[in-house]
Amino acid sequence: MRIGGAVVALLLATLMGCGSRADEARQGYPLAGSMDARVMEASVHLTLHVTNVSEQPVALEFPSAQRYDFLVRREDGESVWSWSATRSFAQVLTVDTLPPGETRRYSADWPHGGRTGTFVAEGHFLADERAIQLAIPLPLDEPAR
What we know:
Immunoglobulin-like, 5-stranded antiparallel beta sheet, 3-stranded antiparallel beta sheet, mainly beta
């Protein structure tokens, strides 16, 4: 199976929240995100990158021990897989600091089970005031015969 050569580039990045959050992103929002996917024989390796693009450290507050999540949906919106569905996270408020210019990478493998078709992979960075949602198309070709 292939996905546009090997790696999918970020096609859609949407900041979660209301319209004012989108305005902040255009006017000096301190975080930038990207996501890629690599299709392997039995799974798709998803990676979410979150970078502090400001010149100051950024405090990241999380409502639980969970920092990120990945979801895979069909084009019609039907949920196929969620990384966090089979996990538990401590319900504790935590703070992490991301220094200027540094990137955090979060990854997971979706065991696609030989599915074919076009899906949408979503990456969610779950910091309270700095949440980011990214989505990329995920076409899975027919297996070679």
